[in-house]
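hey so i finally got around to running the thing on that chain from the lab meeting. sorry it took forever, my laptop kept dying and i had to restart like 3 times. anyway pasting the input first so we r on the same page abt which one it is
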Amino acid sequence: MAGAQAQDERTLRERVGGGNLLTHLAGEAPLANLYEALHGVGARMGRMNSYGWRTVDRIVTPEDFDAAMLQAYRNDITPIILFEYEGSYQFLEPPQPIGSYDHWYEVGRKHAARFGRGGTWAKENNAGVWGVTVFTAINEPDVQKTIPLDQYRDALAGLADGVHSVNPDFKVVPGGFATCNSHGDPTFRGYGPAIADLLNDGRLDGLDFHTYYHVQWYPIERGRAFSAQTCFDKAKAALGITRDINFYATEFNTARTDGWDDDALISSLFLTAVWDQLGVRKNDRSPATVLAFPWNLADTPRVDGLAYAMAVGENPWKPDVRSKVLKQVLDLAGDMTFVELDGPGSGTMTLEGDGARLIVLQNREGWTDRVVGEPWTVAVPPWATSAELWGWDGLRETQAVDGMTSVTFQLSGNETYMLKYK
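ok and heres what got predicted. didnt touch it at all, straight out
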């Protein structure tokens, strides 16, 4: 894993963010609240999306992003760009068809040249090498399923080729897919096979999955059959993917709903979900997750209903219990990188950094081959002097381990634990 890890040494903090940084709201209160939320949990990234990246005459307008980019830069948040397009747009008056390969090539070329890392926007604003490295387009096409598959494929091919004409190291990813999660369809209603060649030849870096865990529809508490890894593996098989692609998650959450409405339960489930999203593996067991963005850090129930709102107050932002769990994860491991993902069937992952080690155990039925609830005995690194056991609600226990070769903690069943050596 060390060779694969060396290709991407970003810490957890550099993989976590939120959205949406809507370009037409730059400077307004909703975005100020979202930036406060991102800072509050300790995240570094955000999904910046635009409905105005072209005119009704399909003239590309990169200047639509200018003000929002300046706000992101001043807030020390690195955006990924999402070009919003819905299948319903083709039925507007006048119609707004998706556009040709050539059109999307210009979209990619112009936006990458202006907003890509070290691009013209960065030069104009003395921002050094700051800028976008991930470009995405066409969010959840599989929900409405109205875009012709061949036109969808041509649009993404054009976008990828346009972006890569500026910098071949920039990443292009299709906007998030919803139906592997919501309908058990790993082909995303045909949109996955339509772009399989672009994934296999590397023009598209990976797939973006939107995962909403739900007590009825996607019950994470019932085992790995309802995990991000399961959808990722099923999709790669269904699409015939031969390259070891990356995993993106620009939306995920655990739904607060009947049966999952208790603060303790939703916090416990969300901790499992966070590590499920962050710990997705490639075929060689190296880290696949590039981004993991919960939806939505800034929303209150007034904005987004009770199920997915991760704030209980705005102006100033006040976190709900799920946001507090995410902050705890980043406080503990935000500056770490993965060194091992799930030794065979163990349900564990290991991270290191800043003179510490964190071992995560998904101690839930169906997530590990160990007997859930039995004591957990773990080897102690020779440099460690203390071992802290953390749960969704904070620090549970501390043991001195100086000179010890192993340490044992008593566990309850069906929750996720984090063991930190210092």
